[in-house]
Write a structure and sequence with these properties.
single chain, 362 residues, alpha/beta, Rossmann fold, 6-phosphogluconate dehydrogenase C-terminal fold, VC0802-like, seven-stranded mixed β-sheet, four-stranded antiparallel β-sheet, 13 helices, binds 1,4-dihydronicotinamide adenine dinucleotide, binds 3-(4-hydroxy-phenyl)pyruvic acid, prephenate dehydrogenase (NAD+) activity, amino-acid biosynthesis, ACT-like_dom_sf, EC 1.3.1.12, NAD+ binding
Length: 362
């Protein structure tokens, strides 16, 4: 494939995409960021082939332009793009977490626009967190605009194929409904739980007790506030609808507790467990591709460095590490996260060969 690609916004998502697109032979990936230091870093890290000083000039040379900026900035850039002297046949796309407002903005463009949302990421942001394998096995949603033909969609799919993501075409409204349920509204829950902890004034020791469960459920509250401000305001109606559903759910749960019926309460948890346990495992249909490996470990000094040392010797990278529980004399659970299922399998084999500890995939 021979093409000139311009990625605008070189943070976690733009940086990861730019790096992955370099897997195509013959493609030149130019990158632009409003923050000149980020653009310089991206170039030095080999994430982009070139860092053009003029956005307008770089845009005029591109066959594909991908906006990977916070969705508020993306809408403004799309407005500006009307004044750029773009190539005939150029395909514009984005990576934003919302699609309806973006696609409304696309209605006013004279050029082909196909909305995009790679549904993989993390609570981290910035070019330093970018990885070319970020989108492997994740869904990548496309929302074609009115000027996009089947051939144009195929062209963009061809470009994105090297990300190894699973590409699906959806209507923008359907996308925003589903992401409100599984991503946007849960983000508000995470943030609100942290606020609730912060307001706890009676027992100042409470936050010291915030253990695995609280950390798991609130991890995404550490994400970039600007990005989430934009997502929340752009998908406000769908999120408010989820909030109404949630309040109704809480009312029912409150009633269940007030009734103090142990059987009904157990049934509530049982039903939730069944649904949760049957969710597709990450990388095979879930939103985000992180491949977790659970290892039962004793609470002895040096155990974590011993295990991660074996992985380092076998050149297996981990993307995250956490301990679910450790108490004296009791085995704890170390959870190691890997970027790919192959890495997880290699780690599992490595521990089976080199240690006596059980490791398993939940
Ligand atoms: N973080 C995540 O896990 C995911 C994010 N997304 C979406 O991808 C987009 C980018 O998100 P991240 O990469 O996480 O954000 P980020 O904060 O890591 O990177 C955004 C980059 O855009 C640059 N930028 C901001 N305004 C700009 C402008 N007007 N012109 C040029 N550059 C500008 C910033 O300097 C920054 O380097 C957002 O729309 C987000 O909704 C999609 C999937 C996952
Ligand atoms: O870290 C996580 O689990 C995320 O929620 C990452 C994420 C953020 C925004 C998206 O549109 C998609 C994925």
């Amino acid at each position: 494939m021979k093409a000139q690609v311009l990625v605008i916004g070189l943070g976690l998502i733009g940086g990861s995409l730019a790096k992955a697109l370099q897997r195509h032979e013959g493609i030149h990936v130019a990158g632009y960021d409003a923050d000149a230091l980020t653009a310089r870093k991206a170039f030095k890290m080999g994430i982009i082939h070139s860092s053009p000083p003029s956005l307008e000039r770089a845009a005029s040379e591109a066959d594909f332009i991908i906006f990977a900026t916070p969705v508020g900035a993306t809408v403004k850039l799309m407005e500006q793009s009307k004044f750029w002297d773009l190539k005939e046949g150029v395909i514009l796309s984005d990576t934003g977490s919302t699609k309806q407002v973006i696609m409304e903005a696309a209605e006013n463009l004279q050029h082909i626009f196909i909305g995009g949302h790679p549904m993989a990421g993390s609570h981290k942001s910035g070019v330093e967190a970018a990885k070319d394998v970020l989108f492997e096995n994740a869904f990548y949603i496309l929302t074609p605009g009115k000027l996009a033909s089947e051939a144009n969609i195929s062209q963009l799919k061809g470009l994105l194929s090297v990300t190894k993501a699973k590409i699906e075409v959806l209507a923008a409204a359907d996308h925003d409904h589903m992401t409100a349920v599984v991503s946007h509204f849960p983000h508000l829950i995470a943030a609100s739980l942290v606020h609730q902890l912060d307001k706890e004034s009676e027992y100042s020791f409470t936050r010291q007790l915030a253990a695995g469960g609280f950390r798991d459920i609130t991890r995404i509250a550490s994400s970039d506030p600007v990005m989430w401000r934009d997502i929340t305001t752009q998908n406000k109606d769908m999120i408010v609808e989820q909030m109404d559903n949630w309040m109704e759910e809480m009312q029912q749960l409150k009633y269940l507790l007030e009734q103090n019926d142990p059987h009904a309460i157990q049934q509530y948890f049982h039903q939730a467990k069944m649904v949760r346990d049957e969710l597709p495992i990450a990388g095979h249909g879930a939103l985000y591709s992180v491949f977790d490996l659970y290892i039962d470990i004793p609470d002895v000094p040096g155990i974590i460095s011993e295990l991660t040392g074996y992985l380092a010797e076998e050149q297996i990278s981990i993307v995250n590490l956490r301990i679910l529980e450790t108490r004296e004399d009791v085995f704890g659970i170390l959870v190691l996260s890997f970027q790919t299922s192959e890495d997880r399998e290699r780690a599992k084999n490595c521990f089976a060969r080199r240690t006596v500890y059980d490791s398993y995939i939940s």
